[in-house]
Design a protein that fits this description.
The protein is an alpha+beta fold. It has a domain of about 55 residues. A 3-stranded antiparallel sheet has the order 3-4-5. It has a two-stranded antiparallel ribbon with strand order 1-2. It is extended and about 90 Å long.
Length: about 200
């Protein structure tokens, strides 16, 4: 059952169990808007913040918007929850993006709707958009910033890339040995001697 709506926008439609919203328009040069749109499309079907387990070991999922009958939570057994998640997993090598109707590949008037080879007026051909580096991807996905020094806040740069497994094992073994030596407790100084404790060797 679709969630309750106060008013229907001209760009939205609810038909045969599908909800379509064509109110978002994104141009090629609007990279920030395109990024938000891609994140919204690629978001997971289940939110961890609204997922919990009750005292009967049942899975409780809080709805973002209540149903028309007032339902705010969905309660199910763990096995039923896993079965519903498994139904969302696509089969291997299946194209997840499919176009129908006027956007279908073989639609005879597709060329009148989908424009091709239309360069953006704000795009500089001499300065193309560079893809994200692997360091930027780490920061975006896992919130791991390896471009900034944690001690001084300066910018780090790559000075070497070691790929030989033997060299890597040698460096890691040396680091582990150095850590063990640094963790060892320092030896106490020798006791002080006075003149009465002097030892004479003949």
């Amino acid at each position: 059952m679709p969630p309750a709506t106060t008013d229907d926008k001209p760009s939205t439609a609810h038909e045969a169990g599908f909800s379509i919203d064509a109110g978002t328009v994104c141009q090629e040069h609007e990279r920030g808007k395109l990024q938000r749109l891609c994140r919204d499309v690629a978001r997971p079907p289940v939110s961890n913040e609204r997922l919990s387990v009750n005292e009967h070991s049942q899975v409780v999922y809080k709805l973002k918007h209540p149903f028309r009958n007032g339902t705010t939570h969905v309660v199910m057994d763990p096995l039923a929850f896993i079965a519903r998640l498994a139904a969302l997993v696509p089969r291997p090598r299946v194209n997840l993006t499919r176009y129908h109707g006027v956007f279908a590949p073989n639609f005879k008037h597709r060329k009148l709707i989908v424009l091709r080879h239309q360069p953006s007026p704000r795009r500089d051909p001499h300065n193309p958009l560079a893809p994200l580096t692997w360091m930027q991807r780490l920061k975006r996905v896992f919130n791991i910033d390896i471009e900034t020094c944690p001690h001084c806040g300066g910018t780090l740069r790559v000075i070497a890339s070691i790929e030989d497994p033997t060299v890597i094992e040698t460096i890691l073994a040396h680091i582990a040995l150095r850590d063990r030596v640094s963790d060892a407790q320092p030896r106490a100084p020798p006791p002080a001697f006075d003149d009465n404790d002097a030892v004479h060797l003949f």
